[in-house]
Specification:
The structure holds 2 protein chains of 2 kinds.
Chain A: H1 3-44, H2 60-69, H3 81-97, H4 116-126, H5 128-137, H6 141-172, H7 177-183, H8 197-210, H9 222-225, H10 235-260, H11 281-301, H12 307-335
Chain B: H1 3-28, H2 32-52, H3 56-80, H4 85-90, H5 92-118, H6 136-147, H7 149-170, H8 182-187, H9 190-193
Classes of the chains: A mainly alpha, B mainly alpha.
């Protein structure tokens, strides 16, 4: 074998294995998130949820996936052929590619990019193409209406989301996600959600809106436009949209945990308690789990927003609120408040 | 050539080719929506080339602003318009000379650029490869906000003025629109809407 090919291999293989592990874990999480969703909402509504396939219904997600895989993919006759097939791919790729810059633990990150945070923003902004193209290529009224609603909503809330992230960048003074987490090390009091509480709430609610989840799910409002942008999709193509939606939920939760809740850091770090004070992947998983539970809780309890109310909330409430809090945060930074802004201006 | 260079060369040629082909397709493809999508592909490949040249911040920002926002809005408009494809093709011959002139100017500029480069004009040296750890976001930020603060702020101001002007141009106040005013709805109290009355029983013999 050529010597340089060998070098290529040693550089390539660890990355490839890492990518594979992350993808498989994300997809498995999606499978069990759907199970958790049905169980949690079931119990909240005094039902049992799925309990037939396997012990406590634990194999239900696999049964669903198999069912979807064996269904026929129907491509509508008047649809725009290639785009119709490409759309679900465009939805899933950003949802998976963003995981490259999420730090799972110290040094455990696929690509430690300096501009990590804007990479995340750029990729999440591409996700909207899957939705728009699916709606347009289907050549169906409901799909187009759903796509328009969904795209308008995603674009509007992206602005508030971006502003909330500016707050994090101002606090951490870096765009590197690993450094952002390390700047929050030292227990729950050092996490950014305390000084940036309004931004954290706005970020998370915008995240719910970005993923088109209840109560912001007018894009697929069943009572009005059947299923929105993916009404014409069936079988595997539908499964891919489904996968993208849930992968995006997990991603938003992971980002919120990384940016505002100290990432892999233990809330009790620095207290010296054995086991509980140790930082690690488990804490990140736990935080993601709690935030995902919030997603499910919202869906079980809130009625759907009306469309104009969604727009009003995004443009007239969230964006001004983030602007105000950025000014307040600037005052914090100049005043070097608390354990968060000790560094002052660099 | 070591493997890293080899990969870089490969990436450049692959993305460069796709870039040129998609740019060509933008103007040759029939349907405006398809053209817009090829433009998306175009921007995406440009971003990759910029990142390859070491301008990671600019590359990602290109995707964020142009692909993620501007072209989405463009697609919105194109999808909503009921464009007649044939009508769009009509002006092609009429506008071809104008297009040729623009293309000629661009080519001349490029030739001048490379010519100046060969003369050893140092402002146009090939991009130097900086270390991967070099944080060009921070470098750009310090340049823009320290050295070029006033021009930068001025540019922002001009954009803001343009934004306000665009809104004013399209702002219409039509009478008779029944829109809800959420602030008023929130401010309503029970005593504004509900009146408690104690009805008296009708007197005997009164006509009703």
């Amino acid at each position: 074998m050529n010597p340089w090919l060998l070098g290529l291999e040693s550089w390539f293989l660890p990355h490839l294995v890492g990518i594979l592990v992350v993808t498989v874990v994300v997809i498995l999480s999606v499978a069990y998130l759907t199970y958790a969703e049905r169980k949690v909402i079931g119990y909240m509504q005094s039902r049992l949820g799925p309990n037939r396939v396997g012990q406590w219904g634990l194999l239900q997600p696999f049964a669903d996936v198999l069912k979807l895989l064996f269904k026929e993919i129907i491509i509508p006759e008047r649809s725009s052929g290639l785009l119709f097939v490409v759309a679900p791919v465009l939805a899933i790729v950003p949802a998976l590619a963003t995981w490259a810059v999420i730090p799972f633990a110290r040094g455990l990150i696929l690509a430690n990019v300096n501009a990590g945070l804007i990479y995340v923003l750029a990729l999440t902004s591409i996700g909207v193409y899957g939705v728009i193209l699916a709606g347009w290529a289907s050549n169906s009224k409901y799909a187009l209406l759903g796509a328009m609603r969904s795209a308008a909503q995603i674009i509007s809330y992206e602005i508030a989301m971006g502003f909330a992230l500016i707050g994090v960048v101002m606090a951490a003074q870096t765009l590197n996600l690993e450094h952002i987490v390390e700047n929050q090390s030292g227990g729950i009091l050092h996490w950014y959600f305390i000084p940036l509480l309004p931004l954290f709430m706005i970020y998370f609610v915008s995240g719910v809106a970005e993923t088109n989840r209840a109560p912001f799910d007018v894009a697929e409002g069943e009572s009005e436009i059947v299923a929105g942008f993916h009404v014409e999709y069936s079988g595997t193509a539908f499964a891919v949209f489904f996968l993208a939606e849930y992968a995006n939920m997990i991603l938003i939760a992971a980002l919120a945990a990384t940016l505002f809740l100290g990432g892999w850091g233990s809330p009790l770090a620095g207290l010296g308690i054995p086991l509980l004070s140790a930082n690690g992947l488990v804490w990140l998983a736990l935080k993601i789990g709690v935030l995902l539970f919030l997603f499910l809780w919202f869906r079980a309890t809130f009625p759907r927003y009306r469309y104009d109310q969604i727009m009003r909330l995004g443009w007239k409430v969230f964006i001004p609120a983030t602007l105000v809090w950025l000014v307040v945060e600037s005052a914090f930074i100049i005043g070097q408040v608390g354990p968060w802004f000790h560094g002052g201006l660099s | 050539m070591n493997p890293a260079d080899w990969i870089e060369e490969g990436v450049f040629w692959v993305f460069g080719t796709i870039l040129v082909v998609s740019a060509f397709r933008v103007i040759t493809v029939r349907h405006p929506v398809h053209a817009a999508l090829f433009l998306v592909l175009c921007f995406f490949n440009t971003a990759v080339l910029w990142i390859l040249a070491g301008a990671e911040f600019l590359g990602i920002i290109l995707i964020l602003i142009y692909v993620g926002a501007v072209l989405v809005l463009l697609l919105f408009v194109v999808m909503m318009l009921d464009v007649e494809v044939e009508k769009l093709r009509e002006g092609f011959v009429r506008y071809a000379p104008l297009g040729a002139v623009v293309a000629l100017i661009l080519i001349l500029e490029l030739v001048y650029l490379f010519w100046a480069h060969t003369l050893g004009f140092h402002g146009l040296a090939a991009p130097i490869h900086v270390l991967a750890r070099h944080d060009n976001t921070r470098a750009l930020g310090t340049e823009l906000y320290r050295r070029d603060l006033y021009p930068f702020e001025l540019a922002g101001m001009i954009l803001l003025v343009g934004l306000i002007a665009a809104i004013l141009l399209t702002l219409r106040h039509r009478a008779g629109i029944q829109s809800q005013k959420p602030s008023e709805q929130v401010r309503v109290r029970a005593r504004d809407r509900v009146r408690l009355v104690s009805p008296k029983p009708p007197r005997r013999g009164a006509s009703t």
